[in-house]
Amino acid sequence: MKKVNVPSASSPFVVFLFALLQVSATHTKAQADRVDPLLPVCKTVGGGSTYFGVDFCMSALGSDNRAHHDEGYGALSIIAVDLVAANATSTGAKITGLLKKAAGKEDDDASLLSCQALYSGILDLLPGCTAAINGGKFDRAALSLEKAASAANECEDQFRSHSEASPLTVENGFAFKLAKLAVALLRFAS
Ligand SMILES: *[C@@H]1O[C@H](CO)[C@@H](O)[C@H](O)[C@H]1NC(C)=O
Fold first, then answer.
1. CA 74 to ligand 1 centroid distance, Å
2. Whole-prediction pTM
3. Cα 87 to averaged position of ligand 1 atoms, centre (Å)
4. pLDDT tens-digit profile of 39-76?
């Protein structure tokens, strides 16, 4: 009979192989644990949305550590509101910078000044929005968030109506989608 050379269980190669399998299994499990609570939520709110996709929902909410714990829809909508606030704050700062550069060119100033007002309007809405969510007044919060989404679109429209290239397309898109994400989460909040 031919002797088959099978590595014995104690051979360094087999030990190495088992260690490798274990590391990769642990790694996969850790990743699954981290992603799992958000995936069903994002599939629910983003799967049928025309405003944002599952990927946007996952990366937006996933950027906040709070979202990795098993949060409910209401808590997640507050996180989305916070993301709108962070975005709108940085957009406001960008607009201030652009206004300094554009000083003198009247058309640019007009669009940017409108956007500045629109974004400070968005920031004014958000604290009341969070308070409404905490108080269970989800419809009222959703209404404010719809206003925030419209304001972001209006900013983009300013440039379009002046036939200018918008320097804020990315920012307006984020603010719009984040506000719509918060609205979508609120539909499932209880
Ligand atoms: C704005 O939101 C987008 C989408 O969540 C994110 O990628 C970006 O980092 C945010 N920007 C700021 C300044 O918060």
1. 20
2. 0.81
3. 6
4. 999 999 998 888 999 999 999 999 998 888 778 999 99
